[in-house]
UniProtKB/TrEMBL annotation:
One Gene Ontology molecular-function label: hydrolase activity
Key words of the record: Hydrolase, Signal
Organism: Mycena albidolilacea
Phylogenetic classification of the source organism: Eukaryota, Fungi, Dikarya, Basidiomycota, Agaricomycotina
Leader peptide range in chain numbering: 1-26
Keyword Lipoprotein: no
Transmembrane segments: none
Domain AB hydrolase-1: residue ranges: 89-345
Family matches, as Pfam families: Abhydrolase_6 (PF12697)
Protein name per Swiss-Prot or TrEMBL: Alpha/beta hydrolase family-domain-containing protein
């Protein structure tokens, strides 16, 4: 049975995300796509596999990247929007796009965090990272590193607070960053780089725990994108990567998610770069970020929790993680019972969704 797209302006969006704009919106959500030009002027490590993304490098091993990229995003706001003082900036992980936060098919409407949040009065802006989806894709994959992503989300957060991203949408007073997996590492990079200058009024880091350098997560099936899908990516720099096996992103229990979600994932997958995995160790660095921070990880996350006792004692886990956030206004770790790495996409998603909404409301009230 095919997937039925929601409110899509193009029929084969599922296969070729790049060629179409499909905007998911529920009964209570008004969604529009936006393209925001973002100027990035950052120092990148000459070696894109640097585990700290250049944050610990000396000047001689860094190079300057000074570019303007078009960043694609979907802005959703509650139809019954009262005053919208706060917006959530949603940052996807490796091989996902903005659609991680709202899969564009009716069948997975219950997996849409943006709909869930609209139902509870919260707007969101879900972006495609640079190199991904409908955002600019630099010819050279080594320009797509955590420093690049972090500069993009930081600039966007500032933009959201000072300018209108779409006609009729006023600047917001507060921006809460919600990341998933490599998207969380992007937000952590920004927390290290910006510290008390960060424009984010709170961070919700999902699908991430400390990753020490050298303890690479083993993800089967990561491969050069142009070899994986030549029809779509044959002309790309070989350092753009993708995956052909997402099973590790779900719980091992096959009844806890739809088998069709894996098929949908495969249809809609996108790319990362050779910098994605080594740079995950940015999450082992100390940051002087001063806002409130919560990490949310699924107890059945095969990358972080299963097969170890790491997530069993939440107090001990929190104590270990908190050390890296000495200046944070608050810090906690929440282990979502039964959820996998892609906690938005399994049957238990409502649990984490409630957690995110409650955290945003808490952070805004601080
Ligand atoms: C800078 O870093 C590079 C790579 O880590 C190292 O080889 C080099 O010795 C360092 N240079 C200085 C001046 O510290
Ligand atoms: C950086 O890019 C901006 C905008 O394109 C440009 O005006 C500026 O001259 C560039 N700076 C350098 C040092 O190349
Ligand atoms: C979505 O959630 C609602 C409410 O929990 C439930 O009644 C419905 O069956 C779910 N739909 C799907 C497709 O899982
Ligand atoms: C990509 O950019 C880096 C840094 O400027 C350079 O060393 C490398 O040769 C470039 N790769 C390609 C394929 O152009
Ligand atoms: C995907 O990886 C898992 C290990 O995480 C393995 O058990 C499974 O056989 C792989 N599936 C395919 C289709 O290669
Ligand atoms: C955090 O601030 C302290 C005190 O100013 C400073 O010593 C430390 O280097 C800073 N850490 C980072 C990661 O910037």
């Amino acid at each position: 049975m095919p997937f039925t797209l929601r409110n899509s302006i193009c029929a084969f969006a599922v296969l070729f995300h790049i060629s179409c704009i499909s905007v998911a919106s529920g009964q209570s959500c008004d969604c529009s796509s936006a393209i925001v030009p973002v100027h990035v002027d950052v120092l990148l490590p000459k070696d894109p596999t640097d585990p700290f993304g250049g944050l610990k490098s000396n000047a001689s091993s860094l190079r300057r990247l000074n570019e303007t990229y078009d960043v694609f995003g979907v802005y959703c706001q509650p139809k019954t929007a009262q005053s919208t003082d706060v917006v959530q900036l949603l940052v996807h992980g490796f091989t996902y796009t903005n659609q991680y936060w709202s899969p564009a098919t009716e069948e997975f409407r219950n997996q849409s965090y943006t709909d869930f949040a609209c139902d509870r009065g919260l707007p969101s802006f879900a972006i495609d990272l640079v190199g991904v989806g409908l955002s600019s894709r630099p010819t050279n994959a080594s320009d797509v590193q955590y420093a690049t992503h972090s500069a993009v989300v930081t600039q966007l957060a500032r933009h959201l607070k000072t300018a209108s991203i779409l006609p009729g949408v006023e600047p917001f007073k507060k921006v809460i960053g919600i990341g998933h997996s490599a998207g969380s590492v992007t937000l952590i990079f920004g927390a290290v780089a910006e510290a008390d200058q960060s424009p984010f009024d709170g961070l919700i880091l999902t699908g991430n725990l400390i990753i020490e350098p050298g303890t690479l997560l083993t993800i089967p099936g990561v491969t050069s994108a142009r070899n994986d899908t030549p029809l779509r990516w044959g002309a790309l720099d070989p350092d753009y990567t993708t995956t052909n096996n997402r099973s590790i992103l779900y719980p091992t229990d096959p009844t806890s998610f739809s088998p069709r979600m894996l098929i949908f994932d495969a249809f809609t997958k996108d790319v990362g770069t050779v910098a994605t995995f080594p740079g995950l160790s940015v999450s082992s660095l100390t940051t002087n970020y001063t806002g409130p921070v919560t990490k949310v990880v699924g107890s059945k996350d095969q990358g972080f929790c299963t097969g170890t006792d790491r997530c069993d004692d939440v107090a001990a886990l929190t104590a270990t993680e908190r050390v890296l956030w000495p200046e944070a206004k608050s810090f906690q770790v929440i282990v979502a019972p039964g959820s996998g790495h892609c906690m938005n996409l399994d049957f238990l998603a409502k649990g984490p969704f409630n957690t995110f909404v409650n955290l945003v409301n808490q952070f805004v009230a601080l």
